[in-house]
Structure formats: structure tokens, C-alpha cells
Specification:
152 residues
Length: 152
């Protein structure tokens, strides 16, 4: 299971970098696209903090500087990779107790949180592509099958 999630995290990083590069190619990025990209960066950090039992250091709708996006993507990838490296197979079924942004307590197993991170990212990446597509000559290809072909 660990290798599966390493691969999904690598895919998520790959898609976010491609999306970031596409957004850099135009000066006409809609604010909603920027907000969603910031949200993607922030929520990875929030969920990691929950899984390791740390206080979150960002809000889920944090405003980051666009000039910092690549560095933040790199940091998130390193943080998540380091987290995964420390897990044993049994840890993927371990329940994490946390509070959502409304203060409601939940318990969720680590494998479901990791799956949520990837699905959540893909959902918002699609929204961002829809928002920036009119400003690009070619929208970014964020498909998983493209990732698998390119990583060979």
C-alpha cells in the first residue's frame, strides 16, 4: 500500500507542477484559479498536520504569494513523502482524530485521508483548468495515463 500512495503523491506533485507552469504562462489568471491553487497547497499541509498530530500552520483558504508556489509545492511533496516513509503497513488503517474547520471532531483512517487528498486535488485541478483554459493556447494535460507514460 505504501508504494501505491508514493505513486499517487508523485502524480499529484506532477499535476500541480504542470498546472503551476501553465498558470505562469499567462498574466490573465482569474483570481478564483489563484485561490483554488492556494487552497490545494494549504490543504495538503492541513491534512499532514492532522495526520502527525501537529497544530496546522495555515488556513484551508490561505493566501500564498504566487512567487512561492513552486517552493511550497516542493515542500509539500517532501513533507508528504517523509510522512509516508515513516509509516508501517498497519499505520494505513490507524484512525486519526481531528477537528474540521467548523470544530466538529472526526476520526478517519490514514489511507482514507491520503485518498481524499488525491481526489480533492484532482477535483480542484479540474476547476482551475476550466478557469484558465480561455487564456491558454494549450491547456495542461493532467491525466494519470499521461503521467504513467512520461515516468517510464
Amino acid at each position: 500500500m505504501k508504494d501505491y500512495f508514493f505513486n499517487l503523491l508523485a502524480f499529484d506533485y506532477w499535476t500541480n507542477v504542470r498546472l503551476f507552469q501553465s498558470m505562469q504562462s499567462t498574466a490573465d489568471i482569474p483570481q478564483r484559479a489563484k485561490d483554488l491553487f492556494n487552497h490545494l497547497i494549504a490543504t495538503t499541509r492541513v491534512w499532514r498536520s492532522r495526520m502527525v498530530g501537529e497544530m496546522q500552520d495555515v488556513e484551508v483558504w490561505e493566501k500564498f504569494e504566487e512567487n512561492d508556489w513552486q517552493q511550497l509545492l516542493d515542500q509539500n511533496h517532501q513533507l508528504m513523502t517523509s510522512f509516508l516513509e515513516q509509516l508501517e503497513e498497519a499505520d494505513f488503517q490507524r484512525k486519526i482524530r481531528y477537528y474540521n474547520t467548523k470544530g466538529i471532531a472526526y476520526e478517519t483512517i490514514i489511507s482514507d485521508i491520503l485518498t481524499h487528498l488525491i481526489v480533492h486535488s484532482g477535483y480542484h485541478q479540474g476547476q482551475i483548468v476550466s478557469l484558465i483554459k480561455p487564456f491558454l493556447s494549450t491547456p495542461p494535460d493532467l491525466m494519470y495515463i499521461t503521467y504513467t507514460r512520461e515516468k517510464k
